[in-house]
Specification:
Blueprint: H1 2-19, E1 30-38, H2 47-60, E2 65-68, E3 83-90, H3 92-109, E4 127-131, E5 151-157, H4 162-172
Antiparallel strand pairs: 1-3, 1-5, 2-3, 4-5
Helix pairs in contact: 1-4
């Protein structure tokens, strides 16, 4: 909650001045954070999805949605409608708490972390980050997991281009590669 005030009081005004915007509603802001975990091994074992759901629920504090295959792929033994992953969309307070946890707890725990690459920006103002293992989050105990899995984090903004989104992320505290 405190970070929301931090954005409205400090970041929005600073970013508006840097970009030359007089209307504060035109200043870029975060819209949502999507956390996604793919489970290719769910084809053989149906319990995998349940364990991933439990882990993502612990990490995000919100119940995840199971994603299903849109079409059949014979080479991967996937049929249409088969559960192949889990995702969560975070907004408002949960989004801010998750971002703060990501910046202050998870990134410092990554070995040899040099920062987030600018190539992670997708050209439309969104940032895509891949985390190699879920054990970097403090809620996950190493003894309780069945397998190390990566997760994808997409931070969606209403910025029109990468430069304004990068300024927003820098003011929020995102460590970019120098």
């Amino acid at each position: 909650m405190a970070q929301n005030y931090f954005y409205t009081d400090k970041i929005r005004e600073t970013l508006g001045k840097e970009m030359g915007l007089t209307n504060l509603c035109a200043v870029p802001r975060m819209v949502k954070i999507v956390v996604n975990v793919g489970a290719g091994d769910a084809v053989q074992d149906k319990k995998v999805i349940e364990s991933i759901k439990k882990e993502i629920r612990l990490i995000t504090g919100q119940n995840p949605v199971v994603t299903k295959a849109r079409q059949s792929i014979a080479a991967f033994k996937i049929r249409k409608g088969l559960a192949i992953g889990v995702k969560v969309t975070l907004r408002s307070k949960r989004m801010l708490f998750f971002l703060e946890k990501l910046l202050k707890i998870v990134f410092p725990r990554i070995r040899d972390f040099r920062g987030v690459s600018e190539k992670s920006l997708d050209g439309k103002g969104n940032l895509n980050i891949g985390i190699s293992e879920q054990t970097l989050f403090p809620e996950i105990e190493y003894d309780t997991i069945d397998r190390i899995r990566g997760l994808e984090i997409t931070i969606v903004t209403n910025a029109k281009d990468d430069q304004s989104a990068k300024k927003l992320f820098e003011l929020l505290g995102m460590p970019f590669v120098k």
